[in-house]
Amino acid sequence: METLMMSGRPVADACKEQIKEKVEAAQKAGKKVALAIVTVGEDPASFVYRKRLLKITESLGIGSRCVELPGIATTAEVIEAVRKLNGDPEIAGILPMMPMPKQVDGEAVGAALAPEKDMDCLSPANGGALLIGKGRWAACTPRACMAILKFYKIPLDGKHAVVLGRSNVVGKPVALLLLQENCTVTVCHSHTKNLPELVRQADIVVAAIGKAGFVTPDMVKPGAVVVDVGINVTENGIVGDVAPEVAEKASAFTPVPGGVGVVSNVMMMDAVARNL
Ligand SMILES: Nc1nc(=O)c2c([nH]1)NC[C@@H]1CN(c3ccc(C(=O)N[C@@H](CCC(=O)O)C(=O)O)cc3)C=[N+]21
């Protein structure tokens, strides 16, 4: 059987074109558009991500504003910064980088976001809307998974999707989005019994657990579609949650790097463009 490599690049490029058109039209109409990125302290992963996002905003003609609060900032101070951005007409979207330092209540910060500017779907309002199928958008990574499946025309209706991971940013929202597409969804996590057995039943596997090479070929049904969300930094560079040998058993898979990650970044820009 021929294996389809579902590269993220063509998906990202197709989305970028649409976003560019929207941004140009808004600018012609005299509208200013900018993404605000809020960091508290100095989390290295957040800086890596911010650098990526700044590059893409620039390439699409979207403005950016970096709001940097010191590592000793209080919850009230972070919320105050978010409120200012909520009321700023030049800011189309706000991304508070997580995790925040221990003394800051990240959930309270998420809840303070104006829902329409909540790019990463951190507010309970947007999370709840997603649950009832009326969301503005989901977080970027789950949307990227769905965009890839759609771009490569993977049939979803009636398929059994097994999601590994139950985080608020990936596992839970991607399970909801798959459910919206009429998949039968199983969510596995650290307390799941017989996890390999369940994964073996999957037509579609979405791996989002943050463990390098966790999904091995013996856990995958021949011909399954495998979406790898993992970005694990190892001595050998960035590797996914899925072992490379799984590619030989799957009918389609996303590579890491160059798969979900590249589309995820563009989905952030898509969320900004929706506010134009
Ligand atoms: N509210 C919030 N949302 C986040 O999504 C969030 C966050 N806070 N805090 C920090 C972490 C870290 N993070 C990264 C994303 C991509 C790369 C990365 O290296 N991406 C590669 C993609 C690698 C690939 O191709 O798979 C790239 O853009 O080229 C790193 C780090 C997001 N985060």
From TrEMBL:
Pathway: One-carbon metabolism; tetrahydrofolate interconversion. SUPFAM superfamilies: Aminoacid dehydrogenase-like, N-terminal domain, NAD(P)-binding Rossmann-fold domains. Residues 6-120 form the Tetrahydrofolate dehydrogenase/cyclohydrolase catalytic domain. The keyword Hydrolase applies. GO terms for cellular component: cytosol. Pfam families: THF_DHG_CYH (PF00763), THF_DHG_CYH_C (PF02882). Coiled coil: none annotated. Residues 139-273 form the Tetrahydrofolate dehydrogenase/cyclohydrolase NAD(P)-binding domain. Keywords: Amino-acid biosynthesis, Histidine biosynthesis, Hydrolase, Methionine biosynthesis, Multifunctional enzyme, NADP, One-carbon metabolism, Oxidoreductase, Purine biosynthesis. The keyword Lyase does not apply. Catalyzes the oxidation of 5,10-methylenetetrahydrofolate to 5,10-methenyltetrahydrofolate and then the hydrolysis of 5,10-methenyltetrahydrofolate to 10-formyltetrahydrofolate. Homodimer. This is Bifunctional protein FolD. It comes from Succiniclasticum ruminis DSM 9236. The lineage of its organism: Bacteria, Bacillati, Bacillota, Negativicutes, Acidaminococcales.
